[in-house]
Design a protein that fits this description.
17% helix, 20 strands, 6-stranded antiparallel beta sheet, alpha+beta
């Protein structure tokens, strides 16, 4: 890693933003940022590094037409929902916007951000803002705001579909129902016949669980097992390794990192040269994710390479960490 990137990492590791997505062209319509496909610009290469501590990606783009193309370039973040089990780490406990660092041809770019709170296809950003409620539906800020709602305001938000309210025994439980969608964007000029290099660096807001059922032979949760197999491609080798860690007296916790790959299909043609490195953080950790031709390239790193590749699914990484509990 270059000194420039290393210095940025030191600052970003103290912050967090949701793990994000492939760049995509966009247009600014009446409803906000809308992703669209372009036939004039090809993604020559993508070099992506994903870990629980940092995500960095370097693209090379080429305008293969005879005319310059000026367009919005968008970087959509994964959605943040109000589920209690999601978004455990990172910056979801506050409502502040944490930027990621962007360079174009080694020059820093000031990207703008669009944040929208959605219930289905309905934009409820203005409703939340009018009530001074955080746009993030998850974390301490959201929890505190929900606890502070009057019964009348809570019932009004519930009727509008933004929250659900349960009452019993003199207590009240509120679950947020909206989703925060965040997109970074800027205007980019692509000159004809010249490659443009775009780089991003940020610390992901990881999700996770304080416990895990992976490798637990006493757990009978077929739905969870099937979901993990579909989402993370957990196989027998991975599950057996988790079982062995349990047999050694270790308690397993989960870390989740997501990255949206499918927006890479919005450029002209397939990604000509794609490289992914997933880093599990510690040699003692276990990692599972879906990918073809995965090979180990170091004590903690795993690599996937593709030529002329069009992504058809997003990346979800599961990291298991074993801890010995003190008695």
């Amino acid at each position: 890693m270059s000194p420039r990137l290393s210095a940025a990492v030191l600052g970003l590791c103290l912050l967090a933003a949701p793990a994000a997505a492939n760049d995509s062209t966009a247009s600014m319509g009446a409803g906000g940022l809308v992703l669209k496909r372009t036939d004039g610009i090809a993604m020559v290469s993508e070099d992506l590094y994903v870990s629980a501590r940092e995500v960095r990606v370097k693209y090379r783009f080429l305008n293969h037409t005879a005319e310059p193309i000026e367009t919005l370039v968008a970087f959509p973040m994964p959605d943040i929902s109000g589920s209690w089990e999601e978004n455990v780490g990172g910056d979801v406990d506050s409502d502040r916007v944490v930027p990621f660092i962007t360079w174009v041809d080694d020059h820093a770019v000031h990207a703008q951000v669009e944040r929208k709170a959605m219930v289905g296809d309905r934009d409820v950003t203005a409703e939340l803002t009018a009530m001074n409620l955080p746009l993030s539906p998850s974390g301490t800020a959201a929890m505190t705001a929900m606890e502070s709602l009057s019964d009348a305001d809570a019932d009004r938000l519930a009727a509008a579909g933004l929250i659900s309210v349960e009452r019993g025994g003199g207590s009240r439980w509120i679950t947020t129902r909206w989703t925060l969608k965040t997109t970074w964007y800027w205007t980019q000029l692509f000159d004809p016949g010249r490659e443009v290099v775009i780089e991003h660096l940020y610390a992901p807001a990881i999700g996770g669980s304080a416990g895990s059922v992976v490798g637990d032979r006493e757990a009978d949760l077929p739905d969870v097992t099937a979901d993990y197999a579909a989402r993370y491609c957990t196989d027998r080798t991975f599950i057996d390794a988790a079982t062995r860690k349990r047999a050694e007296g270790l308690y397993l916790t989960e870390t989740w990192v997501d990255y949206v790959l499918t927006t890479g299909a919005n450029w002209s043609g397939p990604i000509r040269d794609f490289r992914l490195v997933v880093d599990k953080g510690s040699p003692d950790n276990l990692v599972s994710f879906c990918g073809e031709g995965v090979r180990k390239i170091g004590p903690t790193q795993f690599e996937v390479r593709h030529q002329n590749w069009t992504p058809t699914r997003d990346l979800s990484v599961l990291i298991l960490t074993g801890q010995r509990l003190e008695r």
